[in-house]
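Q: I'm building a small set of examples for a reading group on sequence design. Run inverse folding on the following structure and report the sequence directly after it, with nothing in between.
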């Protein structure tokens, strides 16, 4: 009888441990997969309608520019890279200039952009806070006046269709504006 009670207690303990492991694993997976990257404290966010002051960019010559703010240590940047490649493919059809800005060293930044296979040649380095970018990834669509038309912060997963449609709408609108300004 004592052995039977002991077996029952051991079995119940194993069930409790198994449930605890499942709950903890579920919470960790939820946090990793479904949370947005943390926003840096006290850094304002750039928004549509603001001018992006990125040195040495000739906005008028570029007409339309996609600026990718990335970080080699950003999980969301890496997981969004396949979508960014698709977006870049769409951008190339619209004659959009591509720029990447990373807070890493020049060598690390170039290596990272190449490792995630983004065909961006204009890679800049430096802190992101002066551009009002609180965290990565962030993608900005900028017009020929240097004014931000669209801003997308965070992981693109699950928002690919929405971002693509917003980008295409903005790119077409920018073409119309540039044509009417001639």
């Amino acid at each position: 009888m004592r052995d039977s009670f002991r077996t029952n207690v051991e079995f119940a303990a194993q069930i409790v441990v198994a449930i605890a492991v499942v709950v903890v694993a579920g919470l960790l997976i939820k946090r990793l997969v479904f949370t947005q990257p943390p926003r840096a404290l006290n850094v304002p966010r750039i928004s549509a309608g603001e001018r992006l002051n990125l040195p040495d960019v000739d906005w008028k010559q570029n007409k339309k520019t996609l600026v990718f703010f990335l970080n080699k240590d950003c999980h969301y940047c890496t997981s969004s890279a396949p979508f960014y490649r698709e977006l870049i493919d769409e951008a190339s059809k619209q004659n959009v200039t591509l720029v990447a800005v990373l807070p890493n060293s020049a060598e690390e930044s170039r290596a990272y952009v190449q490792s995630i296979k983004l065909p961006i040649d204009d890679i800049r380095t430096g802190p992101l806070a002066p551009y009002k970018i609180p965290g990565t990834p962030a993608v900005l669509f900028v017009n020929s006046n240097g004014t931000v038309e669209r801003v997308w912060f965070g992981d693109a997963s699950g928002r690919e269709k929405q971002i693509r449609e917003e980008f295409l709408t903005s790119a077409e609108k920018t073409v119309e504006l540039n044509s009417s300004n001639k």
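Residues 1-35 form one domain.
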